[in-house]
């Protein structure tokens, strides 16, 4: 970041910028003090309301495990069945809005002022963006999702009482191997391409614009100043920021739960370590402890270093599988999968009149709620490291380039697993549990023990960077937009994230984690839609 930091850690705009004239000062509602050597600087009432509500939820899940498990089991299908159309329509709007920004005159606006320069190189920027954005998800679903969609599409449509019971996307492709591969990869890319990255781009752009160009605090409420004016500093803003804390915490807890189950499965396959809640709790505890070290080291010394290491390892694993796997099939599959994605995209993105309810509700609606829950965390983190980029450069890099990398990743890992079924008759990855599919696929390639261990390391380090980055973001929100609040606060949130993940795993497993993501993602979808309007109003004054 810039050496000249003012306004509680926020750099002043450099060059021409439309700074908003407000009497609000960052941290004016904060409560500062110390307990012994531990200092605190927290926003009142966002910190207290969100902290106490989460503590009450954890207490409920621990004291009444049967009731909470029943609630979690009911919540996810109830929300997805009623609001799947809303999640899908909103995600379509986000993609169209981002594409509009790329070609509009507003794309020339520079984040941080007309003369601002980027704080990080492209390499460092991409590494942090990607590690925070989708690390654990790509490791967990890189093999399992293409394989699942291929298998269900190939199996065709099944129904009971006039209601479809299969999980195939669209109308399936019963018995047609080539068509099943294309549809399976298109459905996977739909979930990992333009739509999720558009969700992240909306939040990140709104935060960067209103913080670095308008001079407002780095917190979610700032994006709504053009809509609510000075009311964002009152209870209107408190509610927005509290929703952001809930969404971020439960979105992170879900990813940490997925990471723990996959790391546990890999350790069992390699070293015989037992699979179960006890091991998963130990893993979450140990990795949270490592994340604490990264938290203390700060953004440049912690997250940035770990992100670059992890991206290097991920790239090496990708190249290894590409070279020793079915290289020709992967490369041709990459191009064909992209074509299939654009071919099937209108049907996959259609929010109304869907017959493939298991796919559209169980996969797509859950994914969009998950990405939206992650969006305050990933968006604020991307905003922190994106100062100095133009809007056009920002949207292209955040939307298009990561989407292509995701397509490549899914084509290499998912394509290899599917090729093992189609060409070799090996069904180990197809038949394995979700968290084991990656290791089953790697087991058919040379140096399986080494690559499987690298896979576990990637899951663990993505786990650490997500926890560290999430702690940084939640701490910023609950400190009223300060980016230089006392480190013990970030430590507190890092520990809290691990505790929530543990409680949810014990209280209902991954179903509980998914239920909380859906429930917090729903109201925050409305927040993101309002952000699009606020971005237009904000950019219109910058471009004058």
Labels describing this entry:
4% strand, two-stranded antiparallel ribbon, 544 residues, mainly alpha, 6 strands
Structure write-up:
- This protein is mainly alpha-helical and 544 residues long.
- The strands form three sheets. It has a two-stranded antiparallel ribbon.
- It is globular and about 70 Å long.
Summarize the structure.
With 544 residues, this protein is mainly α. It has helices at residues 46-63, 65-103, 122-141, 144-155, 177-192, 194-213, 225-228, 235-271, 277-324, 327-348, 357-384, 391-422, 428-431, 437-442, 448-478, 487-542, and strands at 5-6, 10-11, 30-35, 38-43, 159-160, 163-164.
Tell me the layout of helices and strands.
Elements: E1 5-6, E2 10-11, E3 30-35, E4 38-43, H1 46-63, H2 65-103, H3 122-141, H4 144-155, E5 159-160, E6 163-164, H5 177-192, H6 194-213, H7 225-228, H8 235-271, H9 277-324, H10 327-348, H11 357-384, H12 391-422, H13 428-431, H14 437-442, H15 448-478, H16 487-542
Antiparallel strand pairs: 1-2, 3-4, 5-6
- Count of helices? 16
- Main beta sheet, described? 2 strands, antiparallel
First and last CA, distance: 27 Å
The helical percent reads: over 70%
């Amino acid at each position: 970041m810039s050496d000249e930091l003012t306004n509680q850690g926020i750099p002043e705009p450099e060059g021409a910028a439309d700074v908003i004239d407000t009497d609000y000062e960052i941290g004016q509602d904060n409560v500062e003090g110390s307990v012994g050597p531990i200092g605190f600087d927290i926003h009142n009432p966002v910190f207290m309301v969100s902290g106490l509500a989460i503590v009450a939820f954890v207490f409920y899940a621990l004291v009444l495990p049967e009731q909470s498990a029943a609630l979690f089991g009911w919540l996810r299908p109830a929300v997805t069945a009623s609001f799947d159309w809303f999640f899908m329509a909103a995600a379509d709007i986000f993609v169209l809005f981002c594409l509009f920004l790329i070609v509009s005159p507003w794309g020339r606006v520079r984040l941080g002022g007309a003369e601002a320069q980027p704080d990080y190189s492209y390499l460092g920027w991409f590494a942090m963006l990607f590690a925070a954005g989708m690390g654990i998800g790509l490791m967990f679903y890189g093999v399992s999702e293409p394989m699942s969609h291929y298998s269900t599409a190939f199996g065709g449509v099944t129904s009971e009482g006039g209601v479809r019971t299969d999980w195939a996307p669209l109308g399936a492709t019963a018995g047609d191997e080539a068509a099943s591969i294309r549809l399976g990869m298109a459905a996977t890319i739909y979930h990992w391409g333009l739509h999720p990255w558009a969700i992240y781009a909306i939040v990140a752009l709104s935060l960067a614009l209103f913080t670095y160009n308008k001079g407002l605090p780095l917190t979610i409420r700032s994006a709504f100043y053009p809509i609510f004016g000075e009311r964002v500093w009152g209870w209107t803003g408190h509610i927005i920021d509290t929703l952001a804390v809930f969404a971020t915490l439960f979105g992170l807890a879900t990813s940490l739960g997925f990471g723990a189950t996959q790391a546990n499965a890999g350790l069992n396959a390699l070293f015989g370590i037992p699979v179960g809640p006890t091991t998963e709790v130990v893993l979450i505890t140990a990795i949270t402890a490592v994340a604490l070290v990264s938290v203390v080291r700060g953004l440049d010394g912690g997250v940035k270093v770990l992100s670059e290491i992890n991206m290097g390892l991920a790239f090496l694993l990708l190249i290894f599988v590409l070279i020793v796997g079915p290289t020709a099939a992967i490369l041709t599959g990459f191009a064909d999968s992209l074509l299939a994605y654009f071919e099937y995209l209108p049907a996959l993105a259609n929010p109304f009149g869907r017959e493939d309810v298991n796919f559209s509700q169980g996969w797509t609606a859950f994914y969009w709620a998950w990405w939206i829950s992650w969006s305050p965390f990933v968006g604020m983190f991307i905003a922190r490291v994106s100062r100095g980029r133009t809007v056009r450069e920002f949207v292209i890099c955040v939307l298009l380039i990561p989407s292509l990398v995701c397509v490549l990743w899914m084509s290499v890992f998912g394509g290899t697993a599917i090729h093992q079924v189609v060409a070799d008759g090996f069904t180990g990855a197809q038949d394995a549990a979700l968290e084991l599919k990656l290791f089953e696929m790697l087991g058919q390639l040379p140096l399986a023990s080494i690559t499987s261990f690298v896979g576990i390391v990637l899951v663990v380090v993505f786990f650490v960077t997500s926890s560290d980055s999430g702690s940084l973001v939640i701490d910023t929100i609950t400190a009223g937009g300060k980016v230089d609040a006392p480190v013990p606060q970030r430590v507190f949130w890092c520990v809290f994230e691990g505790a929530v993940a543990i409680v949810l795993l014990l209280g209902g497993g991954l179903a509980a984690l998914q239920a909380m993501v859906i429930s917090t993602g729903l109201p925050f979808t409305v927040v993101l839609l309002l952000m699009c309007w606020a971005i237009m109003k904000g950019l219109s004054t910058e471009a004058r």
